[in-house]
Design a protein that fits this description.
The protein has helices at about 5-45, 45-70. With about 70 residues, it is mainly alpha-helical.
């Protein structure tokens, strides 16, 4: 049984979506950890440390969003 071009394209699209979902889950998980650490620092009155954690989380999420937007613009 031979796959049609449409079936092959759909298979590739599904694989791409699964890869993107995995990357998104990893990114969000990592940033939740950073934000949790930042919140702990904030509660301890370590404002500079909290700010650093928040900036790192923001930058990482912004980078991931830009990567995703560039992929969908193709």
């Amino acid at each position: 049984m031979s796959l049609t071009d449409r079936e092959i394209r759909m298979s590739h699209t599904i694989d791409d979506l699964a890869t993107d979902l995995g990357k998104l889950r990893r990114t969000v998980s990592q940033q939740v950890d950073l934000l949790t650490d930042g919140l702990d620092a904030l509660r301890a009155g370590r404002y500079a440390v909290a700010e650093e954690f928040m900036e790192r989380a923001r930058d990482s999420l912004a980078k991931r969003l830009a990567e995703q937007e560039s992929r969908t613009d193709r």
